[in-house]
Amino acid sequence: MKGKEARVGGVHSSNHSREIKGFNTFIDVNLLFDIPLVGKKFTWFNANGSAKSRLDRVLVSGEWMDNWPMCKQYVQNREVSDHSAIVVKSLDKDWGPKPFRTIDAWFMERGFCEMVKKKWNSYPVQGSAFVKFKEKLKCLKGDLKVWNKDVFGDINTSKKRTLQEIEDFDCQDCSRILTEADRLKGSVLVTRLRELDKKLDSLIRQKAKGVEVGGQWCEEPCTVRLEAKKTRFKATKDLGVRLDGVEFKSLSTEVSLSLIAEFTKKEIRDSVWQCEGTKSPGSDGFNFNFLKKSWEVMKDEVVAVMILFHETGCIPKGCNASFVALVPKVRDPAKLEQYRPISLVGAMYKIIAKVLAERIKNVLPHVIDESQSTFLKGRGILDNILMANEVVEDLRRGGRSGLCLKMDFEKAYDSVRWDFLYYMQQRMGFHNRWILWIRGCMESASVSVLVNGSPTEEFIPSRGLRQGDPLTPFLFLVVAEGLTGLVREAVKANLLTGLKVGRKETLMSLLQFADDTLFFCEDSFTNVVTLKAILRGFELASGLKSTSQVLMSLIKTLTATPRL
C-alpha cells in the first residue's frame, strides 16, 4: 500500500507505516510512475466484507510513459479470487487542437533571425500601439508556422533520414575504399547529425506535457473541460463590508508619485531580461527567449505599448489573454481541487506586469507590517520561523500556557475580491493612476484552461489574482495587510491579548508568510471568540476564507473554561 487510506477495515498493524514508507521509497528510487486507476477504488476484498484494500497496482518506467502517456489501469470485475484483475490500456482522446508556441531550436537554423526581421517590418498594421503589436505577433505566428513546416521540418524525420545515410555510408566503407570526396560527405553527415541532436534536445526540454484532469473519474475531454472551467473564477457577492475603522500605514506623496513616473527604455528592457526565457508561453505562443533574441526588431513597438498603457491604464480586449495550466499539488491527484492553477500570461502583458512589480516591491516595505516576512526586500524568509520558535521556547521555559493557531486560506490567490484590493490600495495612499493601472491589469484578463495541452473556451474571470502573474505576490500582500490591521485594532482595544515574550516583554500576536498565518494569544475563551470574529470579518471584506481544518496547537494544556 502507498498510504493508510488504501485500506479500510481489518486489523491495522503498527508496522504498516514502515512498510508504506519503504514501498514509496522503492517507487521514488526506481523512478516509477503509478498510472491513474479507473473503476473501483479498492482491488482486494475480504470474503466476509470486513476489510478492503488497494493491494494491486501497475508501476511503469519513464520510458513507458514517453511511449504511452495516456495509459491507465482499469479495475475488472472480481470473480472467484478475492483480488480484482487489472488491465492496462492506452486510449488516446482527442483533446482538441494544441496552441502555437515558439521553439528555441529555430534560432539554430541559419537565416532565421533575418527572416523574422524581414517579416516583422513588412506587416502594414494600423491602429493603437497595443493593436499593432498584437496584430504583428498574429501575422508573424502564421509565417512561422509555414516556415516551420517548409524549412525547419520535422526534426525526428530528418534525424532518421540522416542516420540511414550514415548507415549506408558505413556499408560502402566496408565494401570498398572510399575517395576523399566520399569521406568529406561522411564528415558532413556526422556534423548534420550533431546539429539535429542539439535541436531535438532543445525541443524535448522545452515541450511541456499537459496535465490530465480527472483520471480516476472521467475520461471524456468535454466533461473535464467543463469541470475545470466552473471552478475558482466567479466572484462572491459584495456585502459592503469595509475596514473604514482600521488604521493602516500610508505612502508619502513623494513615494506615491514615484510609482507612476514615466517608464524608461532601460526599465522596460530590464523587465524582459529578468523573465525566464524557456518558461511556457501564454496564448500568444511567444516565450521570452524569442523576445530577447528578436529585441532589436521588436523593441520600438514594445516601448510604444508601454507609453500608451502609462497614459490610459487600459489594455484592449484580447491583449491580456492567458492559459491556465493545472499543476498537481499532491503525488497522485484524484480531484480537481488537488491541482494548482498556474496562469501562462502573454508576453506583452507580462512585460507590463513585470515593470509594475519591480516598482511596487520597492515601496511595499513602507506600508506592510513587520509581521509579514515574504516577498519584501530586506526581510528574510526564515525570520518568522525563528521568531515562532522563540515564542514557543520562551513559554516553555517560563512554564506558561498560551494559544498558537496556524491557518491558511482556501484557494487564497483565486479568492481575492478585486474591489477589496482597490480599496486597500486607496487606504494605503497609492496614487489614483496606479490604482487605475491595476484595475486595467485585473479587469482586462481572459482565461482558457489547458487540459492535456488543449485550451477550453475562453471566459472572463471576476475575482482572484493569477498565479504566474509577476504582480500577484505583491498585490496579495496588500490584501493580507487587511487581516494584520484587524488584529492590530483588536489588540489596541483589549479584545485580543497577545503573548509577551522575552526580557523586554515584546508583544506577539501575529506572524505571516504570504497566505500562511500564525496567531499567538493567551489561552482564553474570549481570545478564541475574537479570532473567529476577525477571520469572519476579513472573509466578508476580502473573499478569503480560512481553511476548515485549522491546526490548533496548544503550547500547554488550556486551563480556561469552557475548553475548545
How would you describe the overall organization of this protein?
This protein is an alpha+beta fold and 564 residues long. Helices cover 44% and strands 13% of the residues. It contains 18 helices and 18 strands. The strands form 6 sheets. It has a 4-stranded mixed beta sheet. Strand 14 and strand 15 (506-508) form a beta hairpin. Helix 15 (418-427) packs antiparallel against helix 16 (432-443) and helix 15 (418-427) packs across helix 17 (472-492). The chain starts with 6 loop residues before the first strand and ends in a 10-residue tail after the last strand.
Number of strands: 18
| Class of secondary structure makeup | alpha+beta
Radius of gyration: 29 Å
**Which stretches are low in confidence, meaning pLDDT under 50 for 5 or more residues running?**
203-219, 548-564
Q: Supply the number of helical segments.
A: 18
Beta-strand percentage range: 5-15%
Distance between the termini: 36 Å
Strands in their spatial order, largest beta sheet: 10-9-12-13
**DSSP helix fraction:** 40-55%
Choose one word for the global shape.
globular
Main pleated sheet:
4 strands, mixed
Mean pLDDT equals 81
